[in-house]
Write a structure and sequence with these properties.
By secondary structure, the chain is α+β, with helices and mostly antiparallel strands. About 30% of the residues lie in helices and about 35% in strands. The protein has a single domain, classed as 3-Layer(aba) Sandwich (Aminopeptidase). The protein has an eight-stranded mixed β-sheet, sandwiched between helices. The longest helix has 16 residues. The protein is globular. It binds coenzyme A (COA). Coenzyme A binds next to α1, β5, α3 and α4. One of its GO terms (molecular function) is protein-N-terminal-alanine acetyltransferase activity.
Length: about 180
């Protein structure tokens, strides 16, 4: 199993089907914190099904899921929520349990995903979608050098309210 170092002793590694139990314990710590901001399927208690869905689509060179561990505990992660070599584009997403915020892990991990997508896989465009009132998520996109390209109005339904959704993106030549 490979893993890449992140600052402050954290590590980034593939989050796979065999982590289902650990992912379930982590989601019990993270679920209410991330519920308003992520797709409902991601916080399902059936973590084995979630991880299998990612694995199946990764097998077709599609989406990918990576966890962030610190002190042997899963703290959150980053993912390609879409990955399309035919169109040369991908979308990146992320989450953390509350105690793991504020270390810069997500910005650093997303930088590694962008490096790989642009430099190794030759993609041209990476997107970031977030609820327009998700300030911490938009701050990550901004730190990564993404441009806010637009707002999809009332595109994010949550608990009976429809929220605006921001679309951020960065192009390969804009990436460091
Ligand atoms: C979105 C989310 C993952 C962002 O987490 P985060 O901790 O703010 O992001 P990072 O890990 O990149 O850390 C940045 C923070 O660490 C701080 N930091 C410390 N050292 C840093 C470093 N070397 N580099 C960058 N930031 C650093 C930054 O100042 C920033 O903290 P601040 O906002 O209080 O100033 C998190 O808020 C979350 O899980 N939210 C709920 C789920 C969610 O919204 N997911 C995204 C859906 S679109």
């Amino acid at each position: 199993m490979f893993s890449l170092p992140l600052r402050a002793g954290a590590r980034l590694a593939p989050l796979e089907v065999w982590h289902a139990e650990e992912f379930a314990a982590h989601l019990d710590r993270a679920r209410e914190h991330i519920r308003p901001w992520v797709g409902p399927a991601f916080i399902s208690p059936d973590t084995a099904a979630t991880l299998r869905r990612y694995a199946d689509r990764q097998a077709a060179d599609g989406v990918r899921l990576y966890g962030i561990w610190q002190d042997g505990q899963l703290r959150g992660g980053v993912m390609f929520t879409s990955f399309d070599t035919a169109f040369g584009g991908c979308e990146i997403g992320c989450w953390l349990e509350p105690a793991a915020e504020g270390h810069g892990w997500i910005t650093e991990a997303c930088g590694l995903l962008l490096d790989w997508a642009f430099s190794v896989r030759g993609l041209h465009r990476a997107e970031w979608h977030c609820r327009a009132d998700n300030k911490r998520s938009a701050a990550v996109a901004e730190r990564l050098g993404m441009t806010l390209e637009g707002v999809r109005r009332e595109a994010w339904p949550f608990q009976g309210v429809r929220y605006d959704k921001q679309v951020w993106a960065i192009l390969a030549p804009e990436w460091r």
